[in-house]
Design a protein that fits this description.
By secondary structure, this protein is an alpha/beta fold. The chain has helices spanning 12-15, 24-39, 51-59, 68-91, 105-108, 110-125, 148-158, 195-198, 213-225, 240-246, 264-272, 283-292, 333-339; strands at 5-10, 43-48, 96-102, 128-134, 163-168, 189-190, 229-234, 253-255, 275-281, 301-305, 313-317, 323-329, 356-363. It is built from 13 helices and 13 strands.
Length: 365
């Protein structure tokens, strides 16, 4: 089966009610729209949130616990209920669902990355609709997506998708919060996610979800860097998936893809792993990193913030304190501090001298 590859993500607030119970009607609505796209020849992947929210009522946990370990255990219960709802809704339309649970390390290690791609492509070739969620039950709090928006964007990159549709409880990104600014209008197209656009987004939209508009902007940015067209749209709009894919006016906020596709490993470094500290560089090093794509050497380091270990992710800031890059360090903070400002001839000769190798460094917009 050939055709476009479409990744569609639906948030917790769109598949649960105010009590946190799964709304089967919302899942059936989207399943129907997925079936329509499949009938037109598209290959569709669903990324769904809602495992924790689905598990809370089953276990009688009200209010929602705050302990991350408890929430991870809750997700192990809720994931079964969540997938069962999707399996039933897709089966009612003659489609087969396949459950796939992913973790950030699936995108950070090339062998695992290629294995995940092969598995998903085989499922699509077999006519299966992959239903994806983060593997919350065993995810390390230090290394996790934190929300399914970024997961969906990375899946879109993984599959060289034609489009990413992020369905939520609002029709898209507005010029202001429509709940308090009645004159706020829908932004129908965004060419570049800059500071002004990011300022329009707040935090998590509901107590049941972990995303919100800010995480959707991050996902749209990942998609743009992946050469994938992204759309943020309202899950409750009739035929929203078809409208978003067709570019129907008012169907959501469209994000224009960039011309150059960022490699998967650098996407993972930039967006999927948290920073453990900051390395401040001098003006010369900042220019060299930006313009020549070199590795960061000790001579260019002007300061170190945070207590990080080798292979941790760090932000790289210029003399003005602004972060312009991110990378994986090859030495712990104590060594970087000791070596800061030194030339190669002044360093031990039996170890690698790069603080961040160019293969592990990504420039940020």
């Amino acid at each position: 089966m050939s055709g476009r590859v479409i990744v569609v993500k639906i948030g917790t607030s769109s598949v649960t009610d105010e009590r946190g119970m799964l709304t089967v009607g919302a899942i059936h609505k989207l399943a129907g729209e997925v079936a329509e796209q499949r009938a037109s020849g598209d290959r569709v992947v669903v990324v769904t949130s809602g495992a924790i929210a689905a598990g809370l009522p089953v276990l009688g946990l009200d209010p929602r616990p705050s302990d991350p370990a408890v929430l991870q255990a809750v997700s192990a219960v809720g994931q079964g209920y969540l997938f069962a709802a999707w399996e039933e809704a897709l089966r009612a339309r003659g489609l087969v669902a396949g459950q796939v649970l992913l973790a950030p390390l699936d995108f950070g290690h090339r062998r695992q990355y290629l294995h995940a791609r092969r598995t998903l492509n085989h499922l699509l070739d077999l006519g299966v609709v992959p239903v994806i969620n983060e593997n919350d039950a065993i995810a390390d709090e230090e290394i996790r997506f934190g929300d399914n928006d970024r997961l969906a964007a990375l899946v879109a990159h993984l599959l060289h998708a034609d489009a990413l549709v992020l369905l939520t409880d609002t029709p898209g990104l507005f010029t202001g919060d429509p709940r308090s600014h009645h004159d706020a209008s829908l932004i129908e197209e965004i060419v570049e996610v800059d500071a002004e656009i990011e300022a329009l987004a707040g935090g998590a939209g509901t107590d049941r979800g972990s995303g919100g508009m800010a995480s959707k902007l991050t996902a749209a940015k990942i998609a743009a860097w992946s050469g994938v067209r992204a759309v943020i749209a309202g899950a409750d709009r009739p035929d929203v998936l078809a409208a978003a894919l067709a570019g129907t006016a008012g169907a959501g906020t469209v994000f224009v893809p960039r011309g150059q596709r960022l490699p998967a490993r650098k996407l993972w470094i930039a967006f999927a792993v948290g920073s453990s500290g900051t390395v401040v560089v001098d003006a010369g090093a900042a220019t060299a990193l930006r313009e020549r794509g070199v590795s960061l050497l000790p001579a260019g380091v002007a300061g170190v913030h945070g207590d990080f270990d080798a292979d941790d992710a760090v932000e790289i800031a210029g003399p003005d304190g602004r972060t312009f890059a991110k990378g994986l360090v090859r030495h712990p903070a104590s060594v970087v501090k000791e070596w800061a400002g030194r030339r190669t001839s002044e360093l031990p000769g039996d170890v690698a001298h790069e603080i961040v190798h160019r293969d592990d460094l990504v420039l940020l917009p």
